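PROTEIN ENTRY
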Amino acid sequence: MSKPAYSVEIDLSIPFHDADMMEIVWHGHYAKYFEIARCALLDRIDYNYFAMRDSGYAWPIIDLRIRYVKSAVFGQNVKVRAAIAEWENRLKIEYLITDALTGAKLVKGHTIQVAVAMQNKEMCLESPPVLFEKLGVKVP
């Protein structure tokens, strides 16, 4: 089955409150930048956190990976790309943060989320049909 190309790219200017005294972004803030892009991506497929809840599923993050290539700094304009890489049994979203002017790679990573049925709090071993519907792909 071919995978649809679901991705978004957001622009972000590094704020002062995310940097240390050397004007370098604290490493933990990259997870926040991933989250901002993830929310834009979920909005794009019309399955944001409110829609997830309303469909009867929570989608907690069970894995977060970040690979630091080069530090971002206060005032720097960056692009944060989020793309759906897997959805059949879990939702894997890959991220890439680049310098907006040069395209230089700064940070890459991914998150993995799994569906949990809110009615019984059990983790689903397969993604629920609603995710396939939102992606416009056939349920296997």
Remarks:
- The chain has one domain: 7-135.
- The mean pLDDT is 95.
- The beta strands are 7-13, 57-58, 61-68, 77-86, 91-99, 105-113, 116-117, 122-123.
- DSSP finds three helices and eight strands in the chain.
